[in-house]
């Protein structure tokens, strides 16, 4: 893990969404995605005009619309109702959508993955075995968020009981959880944090790591671009354009994080220094590629504990066919 020195203003970073709401036109792709490291490929795609570029190369006209929704549940409702075409969604929620719609919603591509770290200010806690009933641990959604799933996986591996910490769990958004962590006698003493929040906390006196998602699952995709079967199957050219644009955005991030940071910050208006955000993009725990990495172990675990109805046979069950014919797909995930 890398401890990056971040601006104090970043603690107040709020999770937002790209662009503004708009109604669909015939040649539009309506895309909803949030802000933060995981969503960087969408912002690079937007700011660099990559969908327009790939549409022109294909001899078609496609206009991307980047939509704004007030919450994650509103985004998924919009996808189900056909009011948005592609959304960026966390791995665990993507698997829930796949299961609950009986395969109608699937992933077009993997987008990104980042390391998350369980950070505590309790000096008595150095390992999972040290937690006591009076500790309080925050995740963004109880049981079903990416961080909650990884913690349950770790508990299952170490103690054979994925629900061991259920009485200790508190649901808080990242920014509220950081505030609670830095407040004396706050509501929590431990936070399972993604970037940039774990870096912020680990720069502070008295904070230390207990567990990394890399320890639990290795480098893992934890954001997918998903769509409905009806839209996907009726818009083959648009899907191809989107995938090409996404992969170019991912390549820019991997090859030139400085340029990617500049594009991201121009898109979002966030108040990071360019070098600071570029360093976060280049962190060793990040994954930016369209083929999934490490997702199937999460799917198997979610089926094991009853969060999804049917266990998939492999990652191809919850992905559309766009990537499956590639030679490298044989070794994906």
Automatic annotation (TrEMBL):
SUPFAM superfamilies: Periplasmic binding protein-like II (SSF53850). Keywords: Signal. Residues 1-26 form the signal peptide. This is ABC transporter substrate-binding protein.
């Amino acid at each position: 893990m890398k401890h990056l020195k971040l601006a104090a203003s970043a603690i107040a970073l709020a999770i937002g969404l790209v662009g503004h709401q708009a109604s669909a036109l015939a040649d539009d792709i309506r895309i909803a995605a949030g802000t933060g490291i995981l969503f960087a490929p969408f912002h690079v795609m937007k700011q660099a005009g990559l969908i327009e570029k790939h549409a022109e190369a294909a001899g078609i006209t496609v206009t991307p619309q980047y939509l704004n929704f007030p919450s994650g549940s509103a985004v998924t409702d919009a996808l189900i109702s056909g009011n948005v075409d592609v959304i960026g969604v966390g791995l665990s929620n993507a698997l829930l959508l796949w299961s609950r719609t009986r395969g109608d919603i699937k992933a077009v591509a993997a987008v990104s993955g980042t390391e998350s770290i369980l950070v505590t200010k309790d000096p008595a806690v150095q390992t999972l075995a040290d937690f006591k009933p009076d500790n309080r641990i925050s995740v963004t959604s109880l049981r079903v968020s990416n961080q909650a799933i990884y913690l349950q996986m770790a508990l299952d591996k170490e103690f054979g009981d994925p629900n061991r910490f259920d009485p200790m769990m508190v649901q808080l958004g990242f920014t509220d959880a950081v505030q609670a962590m830095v407040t004396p006698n706050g509501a929590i003493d431990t936070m399972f944090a993604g970037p940039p929040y774990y870096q912020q906390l680990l720069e502070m006196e008295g904070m230390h790591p207990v567990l990394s998602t890399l320890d639990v699952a290795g480098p893992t995709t934890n954001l997918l671009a998903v769509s409905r079967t009806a839209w996907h199957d009726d818009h083959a050219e648009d899907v191809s354009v989107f995938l090409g644009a996404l992969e170019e955005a991912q390549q820019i991030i991997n090859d030139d994080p400085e340029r990617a940071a500049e594009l991201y910050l121009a898109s979002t208006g966030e108040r990071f220094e360019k070098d600071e955000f570029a360093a976060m993009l280049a962190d060793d725990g990040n994954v930016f590629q369209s083929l999934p990495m490490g997702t199937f172990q999460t799917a198997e675990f979610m089926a094991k504990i009853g969060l999804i109805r049917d266990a998939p046979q492999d990652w191809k069950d919850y992905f559309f066919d766009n990537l499956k014919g590639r030679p490298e797909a044989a070794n994906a995930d």
